[in-house]
């Protein structure tokens, strides 16, 4: 079903099906507050239908040679490119980010399809002859069976693509449970998946929320779960799915620090940090949310970032010249307002206050303008609470060592960035800092599709991350074969 105010359908076993859900939720345009559609909270019986169909389909799918399986992905890439603009618009309409940001995330998603097209090489095993005389040993990779992704709202297109193309290319069948806040993008993608001619049951779309997720976690036919979302839910999913013996990877929340050294290029640093903190309305898991200034750069950076924050053009992401859209829901807007207030109560000063400013023409939208809290105290709750909105906290320290120590005492470990012109400082930072994605003069250190998305600490639960070779390992199980063929058993040649 395309965009309208009706209820979305599930895609199970190659067919669009009306959900029998007794509960549905509205899908909103966060810039206007307009209801776009209703999403069903699919019950366990529908997860069962999808898992059963996927399990049956997997018997044949795993036998399709890898180089034939990837032909569907090549087709998918060309369809995603054909419909690029309309998909990007859908992302903006349901998620709120600017059209340019939507195009960017879609491009990142497509790159994962491209990498997964290398599966005939990436999925190869290893072997060694003569582990004892006349005995050979080979390691092969086989698919797991049925796998599923549970996705967050902030990247409706890209995040399912961190997993799905690899799962399919490796011979698994798949279930996608998009975020109930942004289900329309995946619905469009599933129309394209259907157009590729993939055999029925290979990919399935099941809409829903907690009830649906719990049914996925408990379903005995689903062997592997990929989750991206907030850390409390990540922890819950990790433990519940692992308890059932499933393979699980859960990417969680973040509070990402950046350090500005006195020798950084101030103009470039300010521009990049502002894009990181306020881009996607601060709703990236790799958004900069704490800036630690070191030594003499404090005042100049504070002034420059405040000016940049104030000048940012906020509005509906499809409108010309808009640099930042709304946050996802009204409750998110209220939560962010509350956390800004909490920051001031904990001793920070409001350098730029982005609350309660209407956007002309979009009075019903969930906007928060860029906000800067200065003088955030290291021991305050706001220093480590994920705000997930366009709010940057400023802290000041006297040395790089002090900054690194502060970062390393944080429970989070998704990203940390350093702005400097010193190679030695960069090397020390890269070596010592406890986070999985590191940027040097980079504000959003998002790994490309051929590298793992490497969160650490409370930002990740599991072992193998999304994307690239990690995804190939996650979606395959190894089998080791030891072979002996004595000469006496064969004709002499
Ligand atoms: P969320 O945790 O609220 O929801 C994520 C998914 O989990 C959704 O599909 C939702 O339906 C489901 N879910 C929510 N509550 C549940 C529950 N109690 N039981 C079972 N399932 C439940 O996250 P969100 O608000 O959609 O996304 C924002 C969060 O995601 C932020 O914390 C952000 O940092 C994080 N994120 C992390 C990464 C990363 O790579 N580490 C990337 C993007 C987003």
TrEMBL record:
Keywords: NAD, Oxidoreductase. InterPro entries: Ald_DH/histidinol_DH, Ald_DH_C, Ald_DH_CS_CYS, Ald_DH_N, Aldehyde_DH_dom, MeMal-semiAld_DH. Residues 20-481 form the Aldehyde dehydrogenase domain. Its EC number is 1.2.1.27. Transmembrane segments: none annotated. It is an enzyme of class 1 (oxidoreductase). Gene3D superfamilies: Aldehyde Dehydrogenase, Chain A, domain 1, Aldehyde Dehydrogenase, Chain A, domain 2. NCBIfam families: MMSDH. This is methylmalonate-semialdehyde dehydrogenase (CoA acylating). The lineage of its organism: Bacteria, Bacillati, Cyanobacteriota, Cyanophyceae, Desertifilales.
């Amino acid at each position: 079903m395309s965009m309208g105010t009706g209820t979305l359908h599930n895609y199970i076993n190659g067919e669009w099906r009306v959900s029998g859900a007794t509960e549905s939720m509205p899908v909103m345009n966060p810039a206007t507050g307009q209801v776009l559609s209703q999403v069903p909270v699919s019950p366990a019986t529908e997860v069962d239908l999808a898992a059963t169909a996927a399990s049956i389909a997997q018997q044949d799918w795993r036998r399709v040679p890898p180089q034939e399986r990837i032909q569907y992905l090549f087709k998918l890439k060309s369809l995603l490119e054909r419909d690029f603009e309309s998909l990007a618009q859908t992302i903006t309409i349901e998620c709120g980010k600017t059209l340019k940001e939507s195009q960017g995330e879609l491009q990142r998603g497509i790159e994962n399809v491209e990498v997964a097209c290398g599966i005939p090489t990436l999925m190869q095993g290893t072997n060694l002859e003569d582990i004892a005389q006349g005995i050979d040993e080979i390691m092969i990779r086989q698919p797991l069976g049925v796998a599923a992704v549970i996705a967050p709202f902030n990247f409706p297109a890209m995040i399912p693509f961190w997993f799905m193309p690899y799962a399919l290319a490796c011979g698994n069948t798949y279930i996608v449970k998009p975020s109930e806040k942004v289900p329309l993008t995946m619905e469009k993608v599933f129309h394209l998946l259907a157009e590729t001619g993939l055999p029925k049951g290979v990919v399935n779309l099941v809409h829903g929320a907690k009830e649906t997720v719990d049914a996925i976690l408990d379903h005995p036919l689903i062997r592997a779960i990929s989750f991206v979302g907030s850390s409390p839910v990540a922890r819950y999913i990790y433990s519940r799915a692992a308890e059932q013996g499933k393979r699980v990877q859960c990417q969680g929340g973040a509070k990402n620090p950046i350090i500005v050294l006195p020798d950084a290029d101030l103009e470039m640093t300010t521009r990049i940090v502002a894009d990181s903190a306020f881009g996607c309305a601060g709703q990236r898991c790799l958004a900069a949310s704490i800036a630690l200034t070191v030594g003499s750069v404090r005042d100049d950076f504070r002034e420059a970032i405040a000016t940049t924050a104030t000048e940012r053009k906020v509005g509906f992401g499809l409108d010309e010249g808009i640099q930042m859209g709304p946050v996802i829901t009204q409750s998110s807007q209220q939560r962010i307002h509350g956390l800004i207030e909490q920051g001031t109560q904990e001793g920070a000063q409001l350098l730029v206050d982005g609350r309660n400013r209407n956007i002309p023409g979009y009075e019903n939208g969930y906007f928060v303008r860029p906000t800067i809290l200065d003088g955030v105290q290291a021991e305050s709750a706001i220093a480590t609470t994920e705000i997930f909105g366009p709010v940057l906290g400023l802290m000041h320290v006297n040395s790089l060592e002090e900054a690194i120590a502060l970062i390393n005492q944080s429970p989070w470990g998704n990203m940390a960035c350093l702005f400097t012109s010193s190679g030695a400082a960069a090397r020390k930072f890269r070596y010592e800092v406890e986070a999985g994605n590191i940027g040097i003069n980079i504000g959003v250190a998002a790994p490309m599709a051929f590298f793992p998305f490497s969160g650490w600490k409370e930002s990740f639960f599991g072992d193998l991350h999304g994307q690239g070779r990690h995804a190939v390992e996650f979606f395959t199980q190894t089998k080791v074969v030891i072979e002996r063929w004595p000469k006496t058993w064969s004709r002499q040649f």
